[in-house]
Input
Amino acid sequence: MKEADLRTQILNDVKEYMNLQEAKAALNSGDYIPYASRVYDEEEVTNLVDAALEFWLTSGRYTKEFESKLAEYLNVKYCSFVNSGSSANLLGFMALTSPLLGERGVRPGDEMITVAAGFPTTVTPAIQYGVVPVFIDVTIPQYNLDISMLENALSERTKVVMAAHTLGNPFDLKAVKKFCDVHNLWLIEDNCDALGSVYELNGEKKFTGAIGDIGTSSFYPPHHMTTGEGGAVYTNNPLLHKIIRSMRDWGRDCSCASGEDNRCGHRFDGQFGELPEGYDHKYVYSHFGYNLKATDLQAAIGTAQLKKLPSFVARRQSNFKRLYDKLHDLEDKLILPEKCPDSCPSWFGFLMTCREGVERGKVVSYIENHGVQTRMLFAGNLTRHPCFDEMRKSGEGFRIVGDLSNTDRIMRDSFWVGVYPGMTDEKLDYMAMIIREAVNC
Ligand SMILES: Cc1ncc(COP(=O)(O)O)c(C=O)c1O
Output
C-alpha cells in the first residue's frame, strides 16, 4: 500500500475508533458533574495522529495555521502560540521590559496595578522581574478591579495595568483603557478565562484580549478550548509582536521558523552588538529570552477546537442563563454574578458569594457530597498566601491601596460551579436543585 493511502487508512481508523469511544462515553456519562471538561470529537484526535505521523514535534505547519486562525477569530494582527497560559502571561509581561521600547520599557522598581482576587500567574512575572504589584480591591458581584481605586493606585512609577477578566466577565475596559491612555500605561488583558467574551468600546464590538496592548489565553483542559497544555499571546502592535517572538524563541534576533535557515538572505552579513561582522544571525540574541514554544501536536488539536469555539461560547452563555434563571430567587442567600455593562461574557463559570448567615464551608460540602464539583475563585486573596510570607514580613515588594475587603470576602464566602459546553440541561437543573438545597438546609 502506498504511503498516502496508508495514512488515509490510519486516519479513517482513528475516526472509527473515536466514534466508538463517543458512543461509549455517552452511555457511561454518570451523575458526577465536573466544573469543566474537554469537549472534543474525532476531528481533534485525527489531527493529533496526523501531526504525530509527521513527527515534526516542535512548532510547524499546524502551529502556523492555528496562530493565523486564532488571530483571525480575535481580529488581531499577531498571535503567538505558547506552552501555557502562565507562559503567555510571562511573555506578555516580559515583552514590556524590552530595551527596544526605550523610555516606555518597564524596569525593576516600576509598578503594575492589578488585583489579588484571581490566579497567581497574572502577577508572578512582575514579582519575579522586580516590578511592584499594586493591589486594588474588586467589586462584588462583578469580581473585577474597582475602577474607582485606579487614580489612588497611580504613582510616578506606574507603568502597567495587568488583570484578568474574571471567569469570563470583562472588566470595565472603557474606564481602564482610558486610564491607561491618559497616563501612558501599558494594558495587558489576562484573557485566559474569557476567550470569546465581547466588549463594546466606542460603538465597536471587540473580543476581550484584543483591546489592550497585549492579550493572553490559556488552553489548559478546563478552559474555553483546549490544546492540553497551551496558551497564546496576541497583539496588534508589530514591535511588541517582534519582541514576543524573540523572547518566546530563546531571545534570538532572527525570525526564521523552526527548521528554517536564512529567510532574510542576510544570515552572514550583519553586525550586531560587539560580535564580529557576519556572525551567524541565527545565533544572535537581542533579548534574554526563553523557550516557551508549544508543539505541532498541541496546535493540531487547537485547529480542530477553534472551529468549535463559537458553538462552545454560545453553549456557555445559554448554560449560564439557565442556571441564573433557576437560581435568581435565591438572592437573599447568595449574591449571583453580574456582567459588566456593554459586555457579552463568554462565561468560564458561575460565581456566587454566600450572604451573611450562609456558611460557604457547609454549602460547598453539601454540593460536593451530591456529586457537583465546586471551585474557589483561585487564590481568593493572593497576598495572604505563603508565597507572600517574606514580602508581608518585610512590607516590601508590593503595595495595597485602600483595603481588600471584597477580596477577603471572596476568599471567605465565594465559590463557583461550571457552565462548560458539555453540560446537559438535566445536569444544569440538577445542579441548581442541589445549590438550592445546600443554602436552605
Ligand atoms: C486568569 C488565569 N490566568 C492564567 C492562568 C494560567 O493558565 P495555565 O494553567 O495554562 O498556565 C489561569 C489558569 O487557569 C487563569 O485562570
